[in-house]
Model the fold of this input.
Amino acid sequence: MLEEPAHTLISWMKVILIVALVLLVARQFIYEPVEVHGKSMMPTFEENDRIILMKISEIEPFDMIVFKVADEKNYLKRVIGIAGDTVEIAEGTLQINGVAAEEPYLKNNRLLASQGDYGQMAEDFPAITVPAGYYFVLGDNRLNSVDSRMIGFIKKEDVIGEVMFRLSPAKQFGPVE
Done:
């Protein structure tokens, strides 16, 4: 009779150990939770928002990524250009390969810039072509963002992952578009 409870306990311990191991491996190689710091992606992301990064996704234009920078900080920015793209800001308008980019996520920031006598969202930036193995990134809060305009291209190897899910605030819980 005593063997049955002990056997059940051992079976549950095995299940818990296997689940913990799977979660640990997944956390190391597939996903990573991150807390947002700074204002460079406002209003898309605010200070202390919590997000989940996928480490194994294919990065495309306008995806949001977290990457390592030289001063050992991690930055959250939006991918604007991928290898071979020519990126420029002319008269406050982002152009990719000579075509004005639609940026609906900047609607609120454009309104704030016009109300604050800034005129345009960002200073003009000359055309630059993204080399192979790199990304060109910008923050959504263009007036307050350290991004590829200052730090240059981002190496693919420095990308930690793509933002896929928001955990908090609770009212915005869910997949990130």
Observations:
- The mean pLDDT is 88.
- The chain has three helices and twelve strands.
